[in-house]
Structures are given as structure tokens and as C-alpha cells.
Amino acid sequence: MKSRVVRQKGEILQNLAEFQFSCYSANDMQGKAENKAAMRRNLGLSSADDQRPVVGCITRLVPQKGVHLIKHAIYRTLEMGGQFELLGSCPVPHIQREFEGIANQFQNHEHIRLILKYDESLSHAIYAASDMFIIPSIFEPCGLTQVGCITRLVPQKGVHLIKHAIYRTLEMGGQFELLGSCPVPHIQREFEGIANQFQNHEHIRLILKYDESLSHAIYAASDMFIIPSIFEPCGLTQVSHLLHMLIHEF
């Protein structure tokens, strides 16, 4: 069984060696469709329905990550009509064997693919193609921002995306909480202006500093998060295309 999984990984990585990413944004998603089509082709997943959502998961398969949650997500995604891509390394023998069994079960499936290692190039391909990500944990989701809209307000974080998310959230009937520090004077002034604009608003609140206690309160209370970046979303799992799903479609 293990040898079959290893052979499958080799074939996938060889197919992805020439993978070319297409750029896209919240305003123009064509590149996203191209990335998804290429990923499906290279992983051997069905492309019969180009609207079928793709769920990605990139993680270490260790107990604290909640491997039972990952297994549930695989089967739940299939049940709900989605496709699932898992890229995960595992230093724990019994968990490795368990996921090798699942990988073998789905090795020829048209909607599920498990690659049991970590590979930098493949991770970027999955980020580029997935519609949404799961960030498994039985404690607290991993990532430098811990997947909140808790960030440093600097150009590489895509401050225009954050501004778009604020107004889009309001337009869609939601509430928005931003906790962010800013070392760039002109960006600080811009967000101070937005904070002043919404200072008495019942649905928007901007706090332009970093506060550890408040960050945990926001994690505990929020229904969803954005992870802003114009390069690669921050965090160990980087959860890239969650950003576009939340801004563009929620």
C-alpha cells in the first residue's frame, strides 16, 4: 500500500513541475479558473463541472492538528459535492499509516487527492487553485496572524483589499472588526480617516494597534476571517484563497 502511495506522489509532482500560475484578483477571477483547471488536470481530478468547489488543506498530520477533523472534512467535502486536496507530512507512524490507507482508498477517485508529504512547489499550486481552505487544529488555528483580520497595515498586506473588505462586508449586511498596527505614515493616516468615518457606526470598528488580549477576543467572536496579502497570505498554512472567497463571494 505504501509503495502505491509513493508512486502516486511521484507522478503528481512530475506533472506539477511545469505548473504555471495565472494571476487573479477579487475583481478579475479568470486566472483562478485557469489555476483550478490546471490543478485538476495535473492531480487527475475531474473537470466535468468547473463550478465544483475545491477545498485545500496543507498541514502537518499530528495529533494537535486534529487529524479527526481533517478526515471528517475529506468525507464531508465529498458528500457536499466538492473536491478535496490534502498536502500533509506526518512524523507519527500510526497517523501516517491511517492516512496512507485513506490515500490508497481514494488514489483513483475523481474528486479526492491526498499527497502525504510537504512540498513547497505543490503547496503554492494548491494555494493558487483552491476555492477554500480548512485550517485544522484542536487548539488554535496555526498561522502568524492566526487567520484573523489582525495584521500589520503595510503595502504587501494588500491594504486596498482590506478597505474593499470593510465596505463589502457592510454592503452584504455583516459587521467588520479590524485590529492592525501600521508603521507606514500615509497608510496610518488613511486608516485613521476610515476609523474616524466609522467611529460611531453600529457595524464597523477599526482599532489601529496590536493588542494580544483583544486579538483573542476577536478570534473567539468572529464568524469568518480575511487574511490579506498581495503576495502570499501570512501564516504557516497561508490559507491563500480564503481571502478571495470571503471578499468576493460571501
From TrEMBL:
Superkingdom, taxonomy of origin:
Eukaryota
Q: Which Gene3D superfamilies match?
A: Glycogen Phosphorylase B
Q: Please list the reactions this protein catalyses.
A: [(1->4)-alpha-D-glucosyl](n) + ADP-alpha-D-glucose = [(1->4)-alpha-D-glucosyl](n+1) + ADP + H(+)
Q: Which residues cross the membrane?
A: none
EC number(s) per entry:
2.4.1.21
Q: Give one GO term, molecular function aspect.
A: alpha-1,4-glucan glucosyltransferase (ADP-glucose donor) activity
Q: Do you know which PANTHER family this protein is assigned to?
A: PTHR46083, STARCH SYNTHASE 4, CHLOROPLASTIC_AMYLOPLASTIC-RELATED (PTHR46083:SF2)
- Its protein name is starch synthase
The organism of origin for this protein: Gossypium tomentosum
Q: What is the lineage of its organism?
A: Eukaryota, Viridiplantae, Streptophyta, Embryophyta, Tracheophyta
